[in-house]
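INSTRUCTION: Work out how this chain folds

Token vocabulary: learned, describes local backbone geometry

RECORD BEGINS BELOW THIS LINE
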Amino acid sequence: MVLIRDEAIVLRAQKLGEADRIITLLTRNNGKRRAVAKGVRRTSSKFGARLEPGVVVDVQLYEGRNLDTVQQAEGLAFYGAEIANDYPSYTAASAMIETADRLTESIGSAEQYLLLVGGLRALAKGLHSAPMILDSYLLRALAFAGWAPSLDRCAITGKLGEHTAFVIESGGLVSDEVAPPGSMRLDSEILGHLRALLAGDWDTVETSSSSAKSRSTGIIAAYVQWHLDRGLRSLTHVERNISTEQKVGAF
């Protein structure tokens, strides 16, 4: 029987029978795994609260044909308690976890794992406003999945330029020559804000105007849901109160 030992973050937990759960884990080095945690719903369970969504664990699994089995799990980071006390952070975390689950349906990646852990840590520590952490996470998660929006070149022709037309279906900015009639137009501040979110340039993000942040948030939500083919259920509950309060830290 093959043993797997890895760091992982719990994405989902589903009831199984009277006392068990099926746990979906995004691991650092072994992709996404689904495993049975036996007896986890009993008050006497040795796993306690270590296998709840959003918890980072050091886990040991017995590899199975269809489902693995959790043998050991030690909590490394419990961000959920801090996040749960703040509704905007809680809804942002839910959207991030659902996005990670969807983007790793066929295969996981260390980049997606580290990005999600970093995003949850930023929410728990209040390093930046929750909507901005979520927006930055969404853009970077899509970039790791190969769907980064084109913010400098025309997404159709590859031509560099000061393009202002943004077409979600085409993958970002497009030149005037190929822009469909009625295309969305973005000014330089919105484009600068989107680029800063994608790069993790928090000095620029925090100094953007409330209108640029609000407009960018709507664009990012539409872009993400287009590329994921179907809507993110948790995104409809996200608190979108854009704050101009200065925060410090890095994500």
Notes: Confidence is low (pLDDT under 50) at residues 243-249. Helices lie at 80-84, 87-103, 110-125, 130-144, 188-199, 202-207, 210-227. Residues 81-237 form a domain with the de novo design (two linked rop proteins) fold (CATH 1.20.1440.120). The CA atoms of residues 17 and 39 lie 10 Å apart.
